Amino acid sequence: MKFLIVAMGQRLPAWAEAACQDYLGRFGDWQVEMRALSAQAREGKPVAAVMQAEAKRLNAAIGTQCRRVILDERGKSYTSAALAARVQAWREDGRDVALVIGGADGLDPDFKANADEALRLSDMTLPHALARVILVEQLYRAWSLLNNHPYHRA
User: 0.90 exceeded by the pTM?
Assistant: First the structure.
């Protein structure tokens, strides 16, 4: 199985790109991949149309067999240890897991409705670049907890 972090928007500041690549290189036996999709052009388009176009791109990148976990402000909040337990449950399920970060306007309501679950990283609003870094770091922290690696010190 693999974890696929799919995010709308391709441009990351150098510090965020470096941090994401650093964490992505640490996963021992887990397959973790990050895909950045180009955001939909907005020129005079209604927000709903932009979100629908982005949802089509997300669906194409994810496929139909993945567990879909969206990042959403109304999603479930986990401690690092609880997230590690949830990640272990996903691994036991056997399906690939797509962790989805929407575009500037969020995720299309139909796309959200078809997600398997929703995850909240913070009660605060985070910039997309920072959300990617936090997500990949927490996934690595879950790996470290599940593999008895000393990275996580509670």
Answer: yes
